[in-house]
Design a protein that fits this description.
Blueprint lengths: L1 H68 L3 H19 L8 H16 L2 E7 L10 H20 L6 E10 L2 E8 L6 H6 L15 H11 L3 E6 L4 E8 L1
Parallel strand pairs: 1-2
Antiparallel strand pairs: 2-3, 3-5, 4-5
InterPro entries: HATPase_C_sf, HATPase_dom, His_kinase_dom, NatK-like_C, Sig_transdc_His_kin_SpoOB, SPOB_a
Pfam families: HATPase_c_5 (PF14501), SPOB_a (PF14689)
Keywords: ATP-binding, Kinase, Nucleotide-binding, Phosphoprotein, Transferase, Two-component regulatory system
């Protein structure tokens, strides 16, 4: 009888361990998916931007083909020169960081911004952006901040439209500022911009700035917004 009870106890214990282990694996998978989602969104945005560039290239080729078929060689030459100048300006852009993943992100965002008539300027007195931060988090943070700045300038009549990205280190504090010369934030925006789900744009999930705030807090940093009439600045300060 004692042996039967012991055997039954062992069987129940094994079943309980299997159930708990399975539940742990399910919870872990959910957490992994939740953590990966913001990065996936950034990759999807970059993929969309690359498809957009391909579509633009196709349009340019069609215009040139039409001009050549109509024997408008001088117009075709001028059009090609304007394309060459625009592409050369973007491709010649260099960035101050020694991190390939950061430079790739900046290149993609700069090209996308240029299509919207927005110029991105990057300055830094440091070669490594946030050395204490995982590349995974850095892509999410920087990508979302730039996307937010681009969205604020897309429908604005300001000329020129500029986004300044300034990175510096003061004592043991790493400071990143992303500045756009769009309209000042409304009181509602200033109060709710970091709230998950909040967005002033249609078809937006409102996860970008909330994600940025979570990343900054994870690295024990602070994010501050300076709201002036001529510029809006998002400044991130993270200790070394």
């Amino acid at each position: 009888m004692v042996i039967l009870a012991s055997t039954l106890f062992v069987i129940l214990l094994v079943i309980a361990i299997i159930v708990i282990d399975k539940k742990h694996d399910e919870d872990l998978q959910i957490h992994i998916q939740a953590a990966e989602q913001p990065l996936i969104e950034q990759i999807e945005k970059m993929s969309f931007q690359m498809r957009s560039h391909s579509h633009d290239f196709h349009n340019h080729v069609e215009v040139l083909q039409g001009l050549l078929e109509d024997d408008k060689y001088e117009e075709a030459k001028l059009y090609m020169e304007s394309i060459h100048t625009a592409v050369g300006k973007i491709q010649s852009r260099t960035f101050p960081f020694q991190q390939p993943i950061v430079n790739a992100l900046l290149q993609a965002k700069t090209t996308h911004a240029a299509q919207q008539g927005i110029d991105i300027l990057v300055t830094s007195n440091e070669a490594i952006l946030f050395p204490q931060m995982m590349s995974y988090d850095m892509v999410r943070l920087l990508g979302n901040l730039i996307d937010n700045a681009i969205e604020e300038l897309e429908d604005v009549q300001t000329n020129p439209k500029t986004i300044e990205i300034i990175y510096t280190k003061k004592l043991n504090i790493h400071i990143l500022s992303v500045i756009n010369n769009g309209p000042p934030l409304s009181d509602d925006q200033a109060e709710n911009m970091f709230t998950l789900g909040y967005s002033t744009k249609e078809h937006h999930q409102g996860t970008g700035l909330a994600s940025v705030k979570n990343i900054v807090e994870h690295y024990l940093g602070q994010i501050t917004v300076f709201n002036k009439e001529e510029k809006v600045t998002f400044q991130i300060a993270i200790p070394e």
